[in-house]
Write a structure and sequence with these properties.
Length: 385
């Protein structure tokens, strides 16, 4: 390991690199290919439509997205970078003195050990780990969150052709990635791929780096994401005992976005056969079995809904959303996986004038009657079909 002096990297979007050529001693980037985009049909919103038309909403990433009947997927590009500087478990990547702007997503300076500058970022002086040979980066920001670790990170392996995987000797993954070890074991990767964990404070110089940039875009999931779910589902053995067919994802143990009347929601849904489940107590394999066998899922918005990708086509998913944080990523995922989707809105308990970056973690409440009505409407429709 050799030392890295304090380094200033200038932010540059990745599409601008192609015309720059060599950016440092032996450093260069090559765009090998991009997967074609796809148009994904979105499931209609039935019960939730009344709220969405009448209430003031704060939608992410843009307003009025709920009206869309489709999305156009991201087109994942694949790059090979020679002499790539890779920083942190978030996979911030630089070529020469240029940092790839897209690799700064879901990163935070204090957490991932860099400084924001006017035109780029600064890395501290510290030793650099040298990695000879060819490695694939599945590093991504938000690695402590199940959704980001699984879809922004590990799912990118599905965009790497088998011949590229065969040419690689290492797979770069974040140290401490949420449920990462369990997911990787179920992906049945090539045995020649050695797992190399990168910590938040680490910096590595990689001789040849294969970089699948993203398969999610901004919740614009590419169809290879469905391959990620399908591969994992195939490698999970069938359940041995009874599993609930109607599940409610219980978030009462989570400090983020506490639903203040969640206990009342759970009690009301019991008479419709919904059983509360706390996913933090289950292995990933057990979560796959649970969602694969479900006919209906009700859940407040949260990373646990990443698991709806394991559901069978046609499964009903009803998401409970806060009016000040309508994030449609799981409606998009439901469309990709051909699920039935609906939502019910509740209200944030803080005035919107206090909106800040952490607002999405605030407490909220929802009408139990509205939740029950939406569930009953869908169950009656399914029974009559």
């Amino acid at each position: 390991m050799s030392g890295l002096p304090e380094l200033t990297l200038h932010r540059r979007p990745i599409e601008q690199f192609a015309s720059l050529g060599l950016l440092g001693p032996g450093a260069r980037i090559e765009h090998r290919h991009s997967l074609p985009p796809a148009r994904i049909k979105l499931p209609p919103i039935a019960a939730g439509r009344a709220f969405l038309e009448a209430w003031q909403l704060r939608e992410l990433p843009d307003q009025d997205l709920w009206r869309a009947n489709h999305y156009d997927s991201y087109a994942p590009p694949l790059f090979v970078i020679h002499q790539a500087l890779v920083h942190s478990s978030a996979g911030i990547i630089a070529v020469g003195d240029q940092v790839i702007a897209e690799t700064l997503g879901q990163t935070f300076p204090a957490l991932h050990c860099y400084r924001n500058l006017a035109r780029g970022i600064g890395l501290p002086q510290r030793p650099v780990r040298r990695l000879a040979g060819t490695h694939i980066s599945l590093l991504a920001g938000g690695e402590g969150n199940y959704y980001h670790a699984a879809l922004d990170g590990l799912a990118r392996i599905m965009a790497v052709p088998e011949n590229y995987q065969a040419a690689a000797t290492g797979l770069l993954v974040p140290r401490g990635g949420m449920r990462q070890g369990e997911l990787l074991a179920l992906l049945d990767l090539m045995p020649s791929l050695r797992l190399i964990e990168i910590g938040r404070e680490e910096t590595a110089l990689v001789e040849n780096l294969i970089l699948p940039l993203s398969v999610t875009g901004d919740a614009a999931f590419h169809p290879v994401v469905s391959d990620f779910y399908r591969t994992i589902t195939t490698n999970v053995s069938p359940p041995r005992g009874r599993l609930p067919r109607r599940i409610y994802v219980d978030r009462r143990a989570s400090p983020a976005r506490p639903l203040t009347n969640e206990s009342a929601v759970i009690a009301a849904l019991l008479r419709y056969g919904f059983e509360p489940v706390r996913l933090e107590t289950l292995s990933v394999a057990d979560q796959v079995r649970l969602f694969r066998g479900a006919e209906a899922v009700v859940a407040p918005h949260g990373a646990a809904l990443t698991n709806i990708g394991f559901c069978r086509p046609g499964t009903l998913v009803i998401e409970l959303l806060m009016d000040a944080y309508c994030n449609w990523c799981f409606r998009h995922l439901a469309g990709l996986m051909q699920l039935r989707y609906d939502c019910v809105l509740g209200r944030a308990r803080k005035p919107w004038a206090e909106l800040d970056l952490g607002f999405h973690r605030t407490s909220w409440e929802i009408s139990v009657n509205h939740v029950v009505a939406a569930v009953a409407q869908h169950l009656e429709h399914a029974a009559a079909a």
